[in-house]
Amino acid sequence: MNSRTGLLILLLGYAAPLFAQGTQRADSLYNAGEAALSRKDTNGYRVNMERAAAAMPERHPNRPFVQYNAARGNAMMGRAPEAAEWLGRMLYENIEGLMLWYSGLDPAFDRIRTSADYRDVIDRAESLTLKVTSLGGSLSLLEGAGGNVVASIGADGTLLVDAGYEPGGRAIARALAGMGAKLPRWIILTHSHEDHVGGVPALDAAATVLAHPVAIRQLQEAQEFIPGVTAPAKEFAGSIDPVAATRTLLSNGDSIEVIPLPAHSGGDLLVWFHRARVLDTGDNFLPGANPFLELGGIRDIEDYLRQVGELIARLDPATRIVPGHGAVTTLSAFRAVYEKTRDGVAFVRERKVAGIPLETIKQEAAARGLPGPWVERAFRRIN
Fold first, then answer.
1. Average model confidence (pLDDT) across the chain
2. Averaged over 311-332, what is the pLDDT?
3. 161: CB partners within 8 A, 6+ apart
4. Which helix (H) or strand (E) holds 299?
5. Residue 184 is part of a domain; what is its CATH number?
6. How many domains does the chain have?
7. Is residue 322 a part of any domain in this protein?
8. Which structural domain, as residue segments, surrounds residue 354?
9. Residues of the chain by 3-state class (helix, strand, coil), percent to 5
């Protein structure tokens, strides 16, 4: 999950009315906080971000990002206990708590960096214990490192899908040791965003890292989290193997299909464990946040929808879907999102071909439950 400012807007209207109302209020307060910061009104930034964090519904995937900004505003004012409390809430709620890792790169935290309150919460993040759930057979789901992590453990060695934030990688290593597993032989990266790749250096001394060629290029560049806070380019000890076409691995009694399908970041892979009947979609599918498939990194929307439809047709009805974030879900839930995306794109295409202006299409689409930012994305990608 990345580009969080845009995501705040994109999520409006996607859930039950009370949930959507809370999200809308949080978004309004967040924007007010951003405006205050642009005016160098630090206290206004802090107050609005605290109110936005309080308004954001529980379990909302953007809640930790708003909490981070609340912590940031307090840190800028030297309010160490309050900043640490907001960072601690991120950890306690365990949505994406290790996002607080960015505070180590963020000059806004310089005033409180040596305080006992700040050091305590950072130490707690470093000693985080992940939740481990069996997915059957050789597969386990590791939660709490950042994005969801799938581990295949067996006689052929350990295979990981994604690696969380930097401290998440160390937590993954501890979890693997607790399961009697070795460090990974393979690490498959669904895409290049920090909450999926930051933990690789703690895990990859002997690993082969598989990633989309676009993701490999992205990893060689610094990645901006928010203005003024940039994660450095990644350096991996193990070898890096680009996956530009579908590839099949045989490991731990399963046939594992690695499928390039750029959509979320432009460099995405899906990972299908055939025997276990598990599909890891990365951030191409975020069921707790977005009832549409991601379109941000798509070049050819028609080809993308065709590939997703063909993949769904190949999957066993009992297949479980592991999204980049959030709970494991069903193939029927994934199919419903695909069909809504396909139908939404068809509507936008029909109106665009008819020569209807974008703003008019957005107004018509709103009555169909199609949010404006999503319509814009679809409109730009339809030839």
1. 91
2. 96
3. 149, 150, 151, 187, 188, 190, 271, 280, 322
4. none
5. 3.60.15.10
6. 3
7. no
8. 345-381
9. 45, 20, 35
